[in-house]
Specification:
Layout: E1 2-9, H1 13-16, H2 20-27, E2 31-36, H3 39-48, E3 56-58, E4 65-70, H4 81-95, H5 101-118, E5 122-128
Antiparallel strand pairs: 1-2, 1-5, 3-4, 4-5
Helix pairs in contact: 3-4
């Protein structure tokens, strides 16, 4: 599993992705790590949320992040409980993941931040380098 940091900020994603410190300064309370199997699983998740396929920007000289996925030109959907439950069931069916509090919680957290994040100028995802993981 890989860690993908979902973040939103009024700072450009290219600036926020320079380091963990830059990300913290730019997005402070507006970031959350989600554990996914791969970039393909990220694409599936975003597709289920109605976000068009993301292109990745390689961060080859960055030791903390491997890739940047910017979706600032798109918005996260704000789902009601029934819509979220339908999304979650489809996610489980397509990924073959088990339903548990961690799985449900990480997706619910993203949903809960949608309204706030959609108001900020930059919405992006960073794939963490394995050595940068703090878990």
């Amino acid at each position: 599993m890989q860690s993908y940091i979902f973040a939103s900020s009024n700072v450009a994603s290219a600036s926020a992705s320079l380091s963990l410190e830059a990300l913290d300064a730019a997005a402070r309370d507006e970031l959350f790590a989600v554990r996914l199997a791969s970039d393909d699983e990220l694409e599936l998740l975003m597709g289920l949320l109605g976000i068009a396929p993301l292109s990745s920007i390689s961060l080859q000289f960055n030791t903390e992040f491997l890739a940047l996925f910017d979706y600032s030109d798109q918005f996260l959907p704000q789902l009601n409980q029934d819509e979220f439950d339908a999304f979650y069931e489809q996610w489980l069916r397509l990924t073959h993941r088990e339903s548990n509090m961690d799985e449900y919680g990480q997706l619910l957290f993203l949903q809960g931040r949608a309204a706030r994040w959609n108001k900020l100028a930059s919405r992006f995802i960073l794939r963490e380098a394995p050595m940068a993981l703090t878990e």
